[in-house]
Amino acid sequence: MIESLFRFANEALTLCAKNVGGETMRVWSILVLLTVLVGCGVRPAAQYSASVPEATIAPVFVATQRALDQTGGTFGQQRTGKMRYFRADVSIPPTHTPGKVEWPDGPPDAATDFVLTGTEVYSGADEFIRTVKSRRTAQETQIFVHGFNVNLSDGMYRVAQMKTDFGGKAPMVLFSWASAGDPRGYVYDRDSVLYARDDLEQLINQFTQNSNDRVVLVAHSMGAQLVMEAMRQAALRGNRKMLNRINGVVLMSPDIDPDVFRRQASAIGELPNPFLIFVSQGDRALEASGFLTGQKARLGVLNSPQEVADLDVSVIDFTALSDGENLDHSVATTSPAAISVLKGLIEQAETGEGAFERYLVLGTNSGALLGRGSLP
Fold it and tell me: What's the rounded Cα separation, in Å, for the pair 81 and 178?
């Protein structure tokens, strides 16, 4: 249901672009998009079911500001002000297609759908951190921070999909901040990002207490703003120990004003390496965000490496691999072609055979590059 509405929105925007020009076209496009999003209604919540032998179980560790019974939207509700910790075992169906989250269309069936097979709630941060660390084969933990309009069920299933499709060995922790999980809650979510800074900084601190501890931060959309704010806050506190133990940062489709990003990066100082920014010029969700925030292009749609030329970051352009899903706002995780290309790049970097270029434009032919360049 949700994916079909997204496809309708995309078709409507394309029709507007063909028939209306200039500023009027952009305004009408955004209004069509927002109307469709508000009409999405209540999204499904994660459901329990017995797994099947052919399924893959992906454990997802969750640190959340939400009450554990708030698996759906919370627009208009008060934030709890308390962190909670648990593990969700997500069963991935044997029919899974890379990039997809197969939600049940009716009673959940582990043979065809994502389902929960078990959960475990932890008594507090200490037990949670200790359990996650016990699952590591090395000293590294990945922390994923979701974006705007994401409820707890969305976040858990997306992390399980990413962990399955990318095949990473490190345990993945979902930091689920108090997004309203509702398309009407954009301003609410921007405030929730500020509300969550202290808790995310504390979580990163807890995973980097020992000298050999390392974390990788991965964030999508508005979650990128939260990651940057947490690192900026740590820098202003003089907490270089934590910042130096961040092994890398990946900002996917970041919903950040480029001017704000520059000020954040300046405050942080030496950025973690690698520092990757995934962009797509076809991102319709960031087009809407740009309209809502003053018709200023967001960082996730930058089309020139010169805009971040003086920063120690790498830009990877996924525009050519867009497939129209989710308004092309999550190309790196929803496009099978993009997943295949990115897995190859990551494996190459991990083996030491090569590092990420400063500016990389991905092509459509099995990981071929349309172009590559160096920032001055």
Answer: 9
